[in-house]
Amino acid sequence: MxxxxxxxxxxxxxxxxxxxIAGALVTSHxxxxxxxxxxxxxxxxxPKMVGNLFWEHGHRMVATTVGFLTVCFTVYxxxxxxCNWLYRQGFLRAAPVYRGEPRRWVRRLGAISLGTVIAQGxxxxxxxxxxxxxVVSAAHATLAQLFFCTTVSLAFFTSRGWFETRPSIEDQGxxxxxxxxxxxxxxxxxxxxIGATLRHSATWDxxxxxxxxxxxxxxxxxxxxxxxxxxxxxxxxxxxEGFLTRPAKIAxxxxxxxxxxxxxxxxTRVASPNDPQPLNPMVGITVAHVACxxxxxxxxxxxxxxxxxxxxxxASSFEFATAERKLKLEL
Length: 331
Prior knowledge:
The protein folds into two domains: 1-164, no CATH class; 167-331, Four Helix Bundle (Hemerythrin (Met), subunit A) (Up-down Bundle), CATH 1.20.120. 75% of the residues lie in helices and 2% in strands. It contains ten helices and two strands. It has helices at residues 3-28, 52-88, 104-129, 134-157, 160-163, 177-201, 210-237, 242-271, 280-310, 315-330; strands at residues 169-171, 311-313.
């Protein structure tokens, strides 16, 4: 375990979470078009940040910082491999002390995170250049959540919890905990897409579209059922395994807070078209709802990864999968 890599991954995940909050502040303040140019703001790198330009340009500065950290982190992951290559080519006289990430798949995940943050920056530019189209704005918000979960996964893969040897536990019972945890993570991701589309479909002085609102409520019910089922199954079947119960309890707690924030955000949002401007209660609760949603998704991702690390499929499930593969080959 490389503690430096893990700490850097934690820093990157924390900065990305702050970036999600900054982006939500831009949307809630309706500040996406505070400046019409990109990547500069009013033709300057550091304009006078007054009014909505404070939120929009502040968001860009945070995004730039996250992008720089991602580049540095990716270089850090590949640094040891690069030094070893220089040594093999004869550019270095002595073998370097390995300081990078030895696992190729983790390095590739780091490279994927770099590509994701570049795409995220380009989408951010398009939202300004195209005057905040709904599809691009929703994609920009969704990709931010995916990037956050990628950084959280990297922090987990480089942590002591991943490297520690743990006894394998059979995933008994139906439904499988691993299967239901994946279903919960996918449901949350779809809910985040719906939520991002809902937030960007109407400004603060317009009513929310009824169809999207009802879809978002339906998604909340589905997430509550799937994530609640996952947590209950873990607590019942593996109550003595803290490696699984801790993230399950955290996920349940965050889900309860998220549902409360969702109701509060709706109440304050319904009254906002009558307000002269976006008021702090609506802005604060909506941003908290977005941030808590990101935490629910990240915690569920970690929970799913932990189930795959500790739990193994039952013998009957393995035999069924083998028989299914043989049948496909025969056909």
